[in-house]
Amino acid sequence: MEEVREAVVSLPRLGEPAPDFKAVTTHVTVKLEDFKGSWLVLFSHPADFTPVCTTEFLAFAEIYPELQKRGAELLGLSIDSLSSHIAWVRNIEEKTGVKIPFPIIADLDRSVSTAYGMVHPGQSKTETVRCVFIIDPNQIVRTILYYPLTTGRNMDEILRIIDALQTTDANKVATPANWRPGDKVVVPPPTTQEMAEERLKQKEYECVDWYLCKKKL
Amino acid sequence: MACISTDGTLTESGLKMFRAMVSGPVSPEEVAQSTGLPMYRVRGGLRDLVPAGFVVQKGDKYQLAEKGAAMLKK
């Protein structure tokens, strides 16, 4: 009887090191370590020369300066060739006047998309779904977003998540639902009964109860 | 190789990097600062240029090799 073996790939998880890679891109051959010290937004799109992806690339190009202000780089990916990527970004520039300023991985051997779990056969066996991995300057995976093929991504949410993660890292706080920079942040809840009693006496906090207190930064 | 075109001439970003390394050993951070190129672009470029003999690595710093300096004079 023929033995069937399948390689088990462990997918990235939050809080763990991002899977290493070396890949050819439209700018230069890159390794994950080349982005050390910067935040990295690694995203996949299903295919070049497709309508929703083109709207997304225009939107990613639009937020690129905002990402740079936050110390973040953008890196796109699809299972297309370098020639296809180059032809597509040139076409986008020719038709819309928008230059795509970030590199795009040509993942023809699927090595990066496999390591990051970007192909979901239930959606497509030949294309990557719309993934976003936000990787911090220490190359730890901090956020994973998956969107279906038919739904273009929300750029404001990507910027908001980076703002929230950077605020959390800098201030040891959490951010509440729909938080925006400038809004009150959530203070980590007390871990002992004594701390819970003391928390409610602290005048600088706005508390619903001992476990839900917010403060201005 | 991203810094050198297929016709053997320096690309615009390659020219910036070569000029940044002409006067002495510099770190990738210094190259990025003086050229305005992102760090990934500098690191990726250096990774190609060292084995090709255009740049020599001295510890954590990089300097144009003779082959690189000759290229810059073209």
Q: What distinguishing features does this structure have?
A:
heterodimer; A: alpha+beta; Glutaredoxin; Antioxidant, Horf6, Chain A, domain 2; 2 domains; three-stranded antiparallel beta sheet; globular; B: Arc Repressor Mutant, subunit A; two-stranded antiparallel sheet
Could you give a short account of the major beta sheet of chain B? 2 strands, antiparallel
The name of the CATH architecture of chain B is Orthogonal Bundle
**Tally of separate domains of chain A:** 2
The end-to-end distance of chain B, rounded to whole angstroms, is: 18 Å
Instruction: Give the C-level CATH assignment of the largest domain in chain A.
Output: Alpha Beta
Q: How many H/I helices of chain A?
A: 5
**Low-pLDDT ranges of chain A:** none
CATH topology of chain B: Arc Repressor Mutant, subunit A
Biggest pleated sheet of chain A = 5 strands, mixed
Helix content of chain B: 40-55%
Instruction: Kindly identify the CATH topology of the largest domain in chain A.
Output: Glutaredoxin
Largest beta sheet: strand ordering of chain A? 5-4-3-6-7
So what's the overall shape of chain A?
globular
